[in-house]
């Protein structure tokens, strides 16, 4: 018996997520990411044949390539993520937290702390394979579930070796709230927790605020889910925000990101809090926009702590540059556990068995 992991996309730079795990004679695709930049092709999917697809969450670089796959291939995702699939695409439910069997392989999921309906994925083979998808331990709204042990960890390293705590990010954004601002954000991710924070700041500072209907709808959806799928203490703040009306001419606007440019928002300054496309990098260089990160991915110390927690012997940092000096920095952080190649093949012990794990 043998196991193979082939990282088709997502290793060595910020790129779409697509990882094939071959185990027990079956091929599972973890995520099916689409291009981050408009017009870029999704090349990893060409000619690909797999037995099943498992989607971690609904952001474009993890789900945008589904349309490139054989529509007859079974696809698994949480019900909330299913709404982002191409119209008419068949899917099967993945638990928000729990264990199911896919192609004879035990698949455990847990909350990843990153987005509405998003989960991490654990495959119960070869001592455990843990794939974080996009994950964060610092969300004020989305919980992060402790995963089971895993010999191999494929971890979100979108921030590289950056390690600034979330509170420092929030403090830095606070310094800009004395001017009219527009915040373009992914409507199922940081948008939800930023909405609660901005509403609180607006009240404290006597500012007016407006929140996009799509973000309000996602907050309503979150509030209707079981309480264990959000951080304790958030319900009152969510209900209060949903009850308040948007200001007609707000000082602060939280909008669903639709590739907005500075020219589209006269009288406002755009403040971005996540990944910048090349065109936005150009706007930032020209002082047309502002940028300050709001943590929604694993920072370096948290990535190492997560690798330690699952007991990983091999760790693959995903979605980040592995060119020097970054590669040397990862070696210093992870030591001999670092695996920086797109393939990983191991021999399985024929009598090995991993019992299915379920979170408390």
UniProtKB/TrEMBL annotation:
<dbReference type="Pfam" id="PF12706">
    <property type="entry name" value="Lactamase_B_2"/>
</dbReference>
<dbReference type="InterPro" id="IPR001279">
    <property type="entry name" value="Metallo-B-lactamas"/>
</dbReference>
<dbReference type="InterPro" id="IPR036866">
    <property type="entry name" value="RibonucZ/Hydroxyglut_hydro"/>
</dbReference>
<feature type="domain" description="Metallo-beta-lactamase">
    <location>
        <begin position="15"/>
        <end position="176"/>
    </location>
</feature>
<protein>
    <submittedName>
        <fullName>Beta-lactamase family protein</fullName>
    </submittedName>
</protein>
